Amino acid sequence: MKNILGVILFAALSGAGLGVALGYLEGRLPDAPAENKAAEDIQQAAAPVSKGPVAEVPETTFNFNRMEQGSVMRHAFKVLSRGSKPLHVDVVNTTCKCTVGGLSKSDVPPGEETEVLLEWTAKQSPGPFRHGATLETNDPRHSRIELVVEGEVVESTSLRPSEFLFGKVQAGDTKEASCYLISSLENDVKILHHKLSNPELAKQVEISTSPIDEAELDQLKALSAVKVTATFQAGKAQGPFFGWLELETNLQGAEKLSVPLSGNVVGDISIFGPGWISSQNLLQLGPVDSKTGKKARLLVAVRGEQAKDTQLTVASVDPKVLKVTLGDVKQMGENLAHFPLILEVPAGTPPMVRMSKAGEDDDAARGDGVIVLDSTHPITSEVRLKVRFSVE
């Protein structure tokens, strides 16, 4: 009997001990993955830095959200050097409406960083936008990196009209163009500063601002507004003109605004011929085959009392590869003279593109070719022709 009781007691004690042991194990099992993870983290922290240059970009897209039309915003993107060798960064391309405000440094030592500043001016109509830049690096795994700024252009502040259009201005005359800076949020609109982007055009344009009365404010359906007037004094140079009027205001979200300003100075001298666009003083030459070249024949007409005495000469040509020839004058009447003008892209001209983008200043280095004719006419002493072409 005692032996039986002993066996039962041993079994009971053994079962209890086993239960405690199992309970202890069950309580500890969930902690095992955390211990393994900690060990992995320690191993990763101790792992060597990746060999060679390594680029890491925490963000590649930034949203400006809502932007006032004409306003300017900028954002700095960070590029981190995470490798064992210096990282080299270059900005190789931007979309047509996005500019790179700066690259803090191109060669980035391991463990350091550089910043790429993207700036965008909301010159487009209200609506969404998406623009950016392309970076190239010496990291073989991230040799090209796309940076993007996006958002929406809005018009709680607006310019009406949105540009200064002078149209045709007679050489020697003065003409005005106006616009209204309007706010639907602010009670008092102010122009703090203004500047013309084209220094030569600035010599011919005077900017003034003036308040408007209650009747005009009601017509504009605005909380407040100010009238901006540009007065253009045409000189003796005949041809189109273009520039940006940059305004600084007291309006939050529209501290900086850019307003286009354009027109065309005309006079007694005019040009005719195939491919000629008189409103832009532009010859549309189009694509040119490098093997054969291309010619265009225009006619320069001089009218008025000075027609008999006016002489023309070619003053400058850009690009210099263009050949420009003025023929002998032909008197067509008492007050009309014709000068033949021949323009040629010679055979063998290397590939090039001379085409301006919409909204660019009249700057030959960035777009169309430009021909300047000198004149002895007392009012029109210079005629500028633009030439748009590409050699393939």
From TrEMBL:
A Pfam family it matches: DUF1573
Gene3D superfamilies (UniProt xref): Immunoglobulins
Protein name: DUF1573 domain-containing protein
UniProt organism field: Bythopirellula polymerisocia
